[in-house]
Write a structure and sequence with these properties.
This protein is mainly α and about 400 residues long. It has twelve helices and 14 strands. The longest helix has 26 residues.
Length: about 400
Amino acid sequence: MQTAFDPLAPEQLRQWAERWRDELLSNVLPWWQRQIFDAEGRVLGGRSNDGRVLEAPRSAVLGTRLLWTFASAEQRLALPPRPQLDWAWAWVSQGLTDPEHGGVFWHVDAQGQPLAAHKQVYAQAFAIYALCAAHAARPDPERRALQQALEFFELLQAHAFDQADGGCWEGFTRDWLPLPGARLSDKEPPAPKTMNTMLHVLEALTELLRHHRVPAVEARLRELLVLFIERIWLPGPRCFGLFFSHDWRVLTPQVSWGHDIETAWLLVRAADVLGDATLLARSRDLAVQVADAVLARGVAPDGSVHGEGRFDGRITDDQRHWWCQAEAVVGFWDAWQISGDPRHANAAWRAWRYIDRHHVDRVGGDWFKTLDVQGRVVAAVPKAGLWECPYHHVRSGLEMIERLAPR
């Protein structure tokens, strides 16, 4: 493919879409189909970059995202049914789901026994998201996947939302009692509300509303969309806040440019599915603002997106994470589709060029997940693990294949 990029050149767009399709079908999906299940169809703890199986807890993050990946690829690429979707669905429904109190456990062992039995709201959101994808790929008369997604939503309705100030709490005990201090990892400060959790609840409710329009889902999605526009977006530092008090005081000066550009296009998607013209206009305007802010401060000279920084522009994580680059491709392209500004189209293209040159593993398959500032693989970060999964880059590919198609 040529390095000079013209977003209005149909042949270049066709070639780019074909390259994405080939990457998914020949490199990414085959790796995950072959490498992430044991002989009984259960999810493994992970694999290192050299292919070694890792003995690690089976996270809800990995399990639910596998289901989303196999279901979405089958449905959106019109692929023939494969057993990996069935294995992933069984793993989420039986290995991860709490049969007594509902919801998914945070971590389980190889047999699906809980190792961390608390209910992280983030994980419940991904379960809803994945089950909606399974419903779209394999609809059945009983609508089992969709019904399970609705059951998970009802648990969030009953426990997860702050009725006074809005938004979602972070986590609960196994039996859904408040769990102060719940957080996604030890790297995060304690915070009762986080942008990351609310983003993925919004994402999940977007898909649930797409398949099942009920007033309760619609109301919660609208609430979250308004919160992102009016509370979580910080006009001063031009970024989304990451960690909040219960009454929306921002707790840290941290910026995650990967989350910012991901949020930008997901807000537009949510408003579009919601069908609210006013919120759609506001989301589209904000998406362009976010793209400009990320382009100004979060993109390196080689087109890659930095990990994290601070409100004053200082970079605190200069590693290149696969998910940031994948979300940048979609987020910048979405901004181009809204604004027509060639800077946004070029930013999407340059992020892809960085991915193609550095993240794609043409020997071992799939992508290297984290690189240092020189583009060298960080060996300590596995190819598959608690957080390392196919969701971001498969979704980026599916989105771009569809968006690059002739109109």
